[in-house]
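Hello, quick one for you while I still have it in my head. A protein chain has come my way and I'm curious about its shape. I'm sending you its amino acid sequence along with the backbone structure tokens. I'd be grateful if you could look everything over and explain what you see. Here's the protein in full, and shout if anything looks odd to you:
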Amino acid sequence: PLLVVLIMSFYASSFSAAFFTWKQGHISGLFATQYYALQIFRGLCLAGITCGFVYGLTQIPVARAYILIFMSPFFTAILSMILLKERLTIGRCGAVIIGFVGVLYGGLGEGQGFALSFGWGEGAIIFAAFLYAVHRVCTRFLAQKDALPPMLLYPLLTRFLVMALVVPVFVEGEQIYDW
């Protein structure tokens, strides 16, 4: 049942995060952050990644979806240069470009070269890849400025709340309660 999976994934990830922060001795600052909006935005990105990827899987084969999700390093490299002012070496730029060309060839071209085929499923997966890159860049920014507990707590809680609202709307019938 989908609702049970959603709830269990939240509890499992929350328990893991709480245990990890407790072992590190950071449990006292669980909610302390100066970046509430950015922490919540990261959680919204996680919910968007989940929704986009799951929708994409209903439209295209899983192998193609996983090829397309590998556009994320390309987006991450671009966003990290723009937002974090990071420099990319020639070797890293080459690797990102080779990966991007590989995604275009194998993911959008269905292995038929560069004759691109593109639909809603591909768009949803690419959107999820972009959100994943945004999430990574935000995480990198916060890792230098914020403590570990809120970095784990806020995105998990936000994702859970968004998914708890979204899943019942888009899942039909008794599927979410069916045991």
Remarks:
- The radius of gyration is 18 Å.
- The mean pLDDT is 79.
